[in-house]
Model the fold of this input.
Amino acid sequence: MRALILVDIQNDFLPGGALAVPEGDRVIAVANALMPRFPLVVATQDWHPPEHGSFAANHPGRTPGEVVTLAGLQQVLWPMHCVQGTPGAEFADGLRLGPEAHVFVKGVDPAVDSYSGFFDNGRRRSTGLGEFLRARAVVEAVVLGLATDYCVKFTALDALSLGLTTTLVEDGCRGVELQPGDVAAALDAVRAAGGVVRGSADLLG
Ligand code: VGL
Ligand code: ZN
Done:
């Protein structure tokens, strides 16, 4: 069984959003085109409480982009984004997620961030996604969404670590690029871990 994993295609990551990813809206059409080709579609949703430790606003004197220690891990500070129950946390309007799509929320614990859709950054807690895929005999994951250099990268790396054959859809992703080259480095990291990077045209053909 093959699953499509849509990572964090949420309003706050689109142009105009609180943590806007350049051209983030471009991934929506790719997701919509691929969904009908998959027997199983899952979507991850960044879903933070307002007091989340990844928000610069919760660290007096700090600004987004600075790095602090959170749960013993290096943590980049972000603008407030994807706050539970706010419009910014909703999936992008144009995303045609069917009622059969399964949603996994992440980043719920204020004390630790969760870039991956599978585990928090300390790998202490599972979101349930890995168990869900295993229960459905999924052996192959196709990953796309936002942002290439954070949540897409770590979701793909965790899929590989769980033994899934993993493909990242390059044109179905866009990155933050806090540092120039971060997107290319993310793709390299996925390839180095055994993943494949392809264009959506290859998957649709
Ligand atoms: C993300 C930064 C903070 C992402 C989520 O979806 O890539 N990036 N929270
Ligand atoms: Zn987040």
Q: What stands out?
A: The two ends are 19 Å apart (CA to CA). Strands lie at 2-7, 40-46, 67-70, 73-76, 102-106, 140-146, 165-174, 196-198.
